[in-house]
Amino acid sequence: MEAISRRLNELAEWAMALLLAAMVLIPGLAITGRFVFSYSLFWSDEVTRFLLIWISFLGMSVGVRRGAHPGIDSLVRLLPSRAARLVLSGAVVLSLIFFTLMMAYGGVLVLRTWPQRSPSLGLRMTLPYLAVPVAGLLMLLHGVALWLRGCPLPASGGRDG
After folding, report:
1. Number of domains in the chain
2. How far apart, in whole angstroms, are the C-alpha atoms of residue 69 and residue 63?
3. Residue 141 lies in a domain
4. Nearest residue to 25 (alpha-carbon basis) of 42, 56, 47
5. Which end of the chain is more exposed for a tag (fewer CB within 10 A), N or C?
6. Predicted pLDDT of residue 151
7. Cα Rg for the chain, rounded, in angstroms?
């Protein structure tokens, strides 16, 4: 599971880099076209918005993999090591439940928005909304990998004794 999580995270990071490059390039082209060639890329705002959605949701999954999301660990630091691990395991299990719900309800959102089309390009609105269940799945896989490798205590977490 760890290898799958690591590989999917690498793919998400590469996808984010490419999407971010496109997100910078497209408005640049739109501005250049508008002021230099007097031609407007009518779709640039819409595509940029969709790219931002995907970058944000993929970024959440990368944050789960890296353990970069903020957390309150005051309680964990006060508890003995065994109890601290139990509390952390409980937090991971609650996170896994949330990721599962995110995936499920994101899937419902994708299905419900299938008939809707974006205003500028006429793309199915399923495309931006698909970021929700995809990110939920990635976060679920990263969370399971974290749980299987054991929840590491914070740097000065858990008292022995």
Report:
1. 1
2. 6
3. yes
4. 47
5. C
6. 67
7. 20
Summarised one tens digit per residue, pLDDT across range 77-112 is: 888 888 888 888 888 899 999 999 999 999 999 999
Instruction: Give buried/exposed letters for 71-101 (b at 16+ CB in 10 A, else e).
Output: eebeebeebeeeebbebbeeeeeebbeebee
Q: Considering the entire predicted model, what is its pTM?
A: 0.86
- CA separation for the pair 48, 29 (Å, rounded): 12
Residue 159 has pLDDT above 60, yes or no: no
Give Cβ neighbours of residue 134 (< 8 Å, ≥ 6 apart): 57, 58, 106
Beta bridge partners of 159: 80
Residue 129 within any structural domain of the chain: yes
CB–CB of 66/152 below 8 Å? no
Residue 161 lies in a domain: no
Q: Looking at the domain assignment, is residue 50 inside a domain?
A: yes
Residues of the domain holding 98: 2-148
Query: Taking a C-beta distance cutoff of 8 angstroms, is the pair 78, 29 a contact?
Result: no
Tell me how far apart the alpha carbons of residues 25 and 48 are, in angstroms, rounded to a whole number.
10
**Helix or strand or coil: residue 115?**
coil
